[in-house]
């Protein structure tokens, strides 16, 4: 079968080249996928001028179409966001709003553009909220066509009311590493199956 591809959308609020804990954990998911032969790339959405809206192209210099093209081309989407005030980042919310446009894009058989692609939510933060964010992100991505694998997410939350970031840890906590590996392996397995046996036509 052709080589699978994975794209990580890093929805940090920090533009490059600032250090990013979200980049670190997303990169660890990609590293596990690379071990399985998947071609990977990661980009920071905040480095692009992504306009607010719910269409595929908001015009006037909107750079979402550049990102959208890479999302559509990838077999696996790693959707990574930090936690702020217990919620996903504003950048992550904007990406979900822009993906809403995919609900109106179908092929001749009524199949949505993102159907058959796999998504893996990734969350980092120094406060609680990861499970809630994963639930919200997972539902939104599923709504627009993505399929989520079993145990197909990973996260890290630091101890409450402290200032250590994930990127500052000397080593990845074993439970996080194990969860990340499982999410990546299950995503690879599911993407391989969907590549060989696509969903049935919608009409």
What does this structure look like?
- This protein has 203 residues and is α/β, with parallel strands linked by helices.
- The chain has a single domain, classed as Flavodoxin domain (Rossmann fold, 3-Layer(aba) Sandwich).
- The chain is built from five helices and six strands.
- The chain has helices at residues 21-35, 64-73, 90-99, 130-143, 174-196, and strands spanning 5-10, 39-44, 76-84, 87-88, 118-125, 154-157.
- Strands 1, 2, 3, 4, 5 and 6 form a six-stranded mixed sheet that branches.
- Strand 1 (5-10), helix 1 and strand 2 form a beta-alpha-beta unit.
- Helix 1 packs across helix 5 (174-196).
- The longest helix is centred in the last third of the chain and has 23 residues, at 174-196.
- The two termini are 27 Å apart.
- The model has no long low-confidence stretch (mean pLDDT 95).
